[in-house]
Amino acid sequence: MAASARVRILDHRTPQERDRPFLPGAGKTWLLPFYDALTRLGGVRVLHRRAVEIAGIEPGQAVADVGCGTGNLSFAVLAAQPSARVTGLDPDRAALRRAARKARRRGVALTLVQGYADRIPAEDASLDHVVSALALHHVDDESRDAFARDALRALRPGGKITIADFGGPASGGGGGHDSHGGGPAHALRHLPGLIRPRTAHAPAAAGDHDDGIVALLTRAGFADAREVAHSDHRFGRVAFVQAGRPAS
Ligand SMILES: C[S@@+](CC[C@H](N)C(=O)[O-])C[C@H]1O[C@@H](n2cnc3c(N)ncnc32)[C@H](O)[C@@H]1O
Q1: Shortest-distance Cα residue to atom 19 of ligand 1
Q2: Whose CA is nearest to atom 2 of ligand 1?
Q3: The model scores a pTM over 0.85
Q4: CA 101, 48, 142, 199 torsion: positive or negative?
Q5: What's the CATH number where 102 sits?
Q6: CA 90 to ligand 1 center in whole angstroms
Q7: 143 CB within 6 A, ligand 1
Q8: CA distance 202 to 139
Q9: Whose Cα sits closest to atom 25 in ligand 1?
């Protein structure tokens, strides 16, 4: 894309949300500089590519990447479908700044919005697709439900949602973690549980979903919510769940 590709960061937070806690990507804000290297070593890019393949985004479609962090899923969407109009949403300003730098280096257009999953920055029925990778386990139950309802609102009839996150029938259950191989990705997966930040950005909770993503989307009113694939990744079972907004 041309050097003029537009990259911007918008603040979608309400005054009340300025001190709202969130769990950062690697569990602690100071670990952010290592996030991309850890996830690259941990093979997370493969998960992103798989999620994008499953999503099947078409030219020119409007896509929201919820919990985008440093933007890697958004970049995978843009690599597969360069004319997609992608908005990344995340409460972590520092992660969004990294995503913006990467987008400029790549020369791709990307809108980044500082905000929370339960308030997607899109007009009613304006999105073709909502995607999210490894983010919902950073969100507490109540906000997750609100996210699913808001995703339904923001999607056009027939629009789709594709989520890749820890969970599924073989995940060990109850937010418990499996014993998978070691290495940096393993460390990344366990960081939130091992390090309990005591800053203003302290996490609410982090847990697996078991079958919860399918149930979550069904409860919100999505049609045909189902796990379409999974990956037994070295740091846990990752489920790829897809559903659609009913056409009418
Ligand atoms: C493990 S990272 C995943 C980032 C990115 N999707 C990826 O696959 O590399 C989880 C992300 O969720 C974000 N997050 C935490 N709480 C959130 C919330 N309430 N709403 C939206 N995103 C949130 C974190 O800031 C972090 O960037």
Answers
A1: 116
A2: 25
A3: yes
A4: negative
A5: 3.40.50.150
A6: 6
A7: yes
A8: 12
A9: 24
Q: What is the mean pLDDT of residues 161-175?
A: 71
Within-domain flag for 103:
yes
The structural domain count of the chain equals 1
Q: Is the pLDDT of residue 191 over 60?
A: no
d(CA 110, CA 104): 9
Residues sharing a CB contact under 8 Å with residue 56, sequence separation 6 or more, in sequence order: none
Please calculate the CA angle 50-9-140 and round it to the nearest 5 degrees.
Answer: 60
- Identify which of 132, 138, 190, 199 to mutate to test ligand 1's pocket (most ligand atoms within 8 A of the CB): 138
Q: What is the pLDDT of residue 207?
A: 56
Tell me, yes or no, whether 1 lies in a domain. no
Distance CA 171, CA 236 (A): 7
What's the CA gap between 244 and 72, in Å, rounded?
23
